[in-house]
Amino acid sequence: MRQRTYLSPTLRDIPSDADVVSHQLMLRAGLIRQSTSGVYSFLPLGYKVLQKVEAIVREEMDRAGAQEMFMPSIQPAELWQESGRWDDYGAELMRFKDRHQREFALGPTHEEVITAIVRDDIRSYKELPMTLYQIQTKFRDERRPRFGVLRGREFLMKDAYSFDVDFEGLDQSYDQMYEAYKKVFTRCDLNFRAVVADSGAMGGKDTHEFMVLSSIGEDTIAYSDESEYAANIEIAEVNVRYKPSDEAEKPLQKVDTPDQKTIEQVGAYLNADATKCIKAMLFNVDDQPVLALVRGDHEVNDIKIKHLFDARSVELATEEETVKWMRADFGYLGPVHVPEGVTVVGDPAVSVMRNLICGANEADKHYTNVNPNRDFTFDKVSDIRMIQEGDPSPDGKGTIRFKEGIEVGHVFKLGTKYSEALGATVLDDQGKARPIVMGSYGIGVSRTVAAIIEEHHDEDGIIWPLSVAPFQAHLIPVNIKQDEQKALAESLYTELQESGLDILFDDRQERPGVKFKDSDLLGLPIRVTIGKKAGEGIVEVKYRKSGETVEVHRDDLKNTILEYVNR
Length: 567
What we know:
alpha+beta; BirA Bifunctional Protein, domain 2; YbaK protein; Rossmann fold; 3 domains; nine-stranded mixed β-sheet; five-stranded mixed β-sheet; 27% helix; Proline--tRNA ligase; ligase; cytoplasm
């Protein structure tokens, strides 16, 4: 490709609205341009990388036995209402009405559509197992689009769906996709971990996120420093055995704590450590009040509360709800004399403590010397806190450490959530109708491109791994007006292309400094510079990743490049 007429507009300055390296470099290198908040066009260079990632995904999906298809972005509301997600999915679902006032959504995912297709066309267990996939644009109305294509409102995604007769079959399909994902992200040269995760609005259970380790990741991974254990911090179990306190119980007292609302304020005011306080938080769990109790130095995990109650919705109670249910304000909540109808759930750490401090459900008042089972009781005791660094690993091996990660893939065992809701059944070997058992598997293709850049760059620009590089080599004559350089460049360009190599030929009439800066910014694996030794047939080869440079005769150039790209 000739660069003079190639749409690859580079920028010298870092765009003011680009906060992370991948966003900065994708804009500066001319890979993308923004249309509106969270919506981007991929320019030719960026689109070539996108296609390279697509090709890797497609090859591994096909190798795993999945069949590619293509489904519409516009999805009728009726399907989402059948599954129950029309109301549950939330504001991220882009909804609209057509001219006949019929309701539709722009698909963020395709469980409903694919289940309806299989429901109507698959009849017998003999036709299963089956895995279907597509690579298609998805839409989510993000509250706060940011980080370029890492969190956009329109993005390219590979979504796959497996269909099995039973859960044993699902386990096999899931394992196949899990292994395929490992191959995809390994081929993209990413440092990733597969972590246990929460299924969220997708439903189902047994799910893993594929996380690229990155300092700008929006998710935190809890991992063991001595084993392969890794989980999203929201789902990581706490494996701590708390020793019951041997303190003698003291008389309960109500004390004044004017304007002292937080654990830090109350602890300082009463000269008590956070570990001697109860942190009480009120949640709206499917429109029912739940008071969650953790130790003062711990944090409540709302995802664990959702799983504990098998709830569809868990939200922190509003100020109005708090007053209605607890007859008290934020900052003064506690489990003593809880109003009827409020469920009290406590973390195990709280259940073994003695002589604690908690809110008195009265403005400017707290209790001291509060003791579980004497002054209040639990409706449930369960692990409801966030795991912390330094906690024992849930698998019993090592200690928990934290890292940030970018989610690039997610695999779910959906079970029969969608097949039961939409009536997708097959006849088993006994002639009995049974719901199809499903799995769902997603890869953020455009997000993967950004994650690759986050991991592979330096201060000068992108460093593309060979597997996804838009071109394999950058051919640069220092002075295109110089006859010997131009002639050699044209000859090499033709020869290298004919040998099957993908070459970007910088035939622009630009200063050498501009060409070299653009070359480093674009980050192609090999740079071939044609300069003063063109008359001798000598060119300079520079490898972007290592910075190594060698002089090569033009007759050896093709083999030099082929050996590097095929190694």
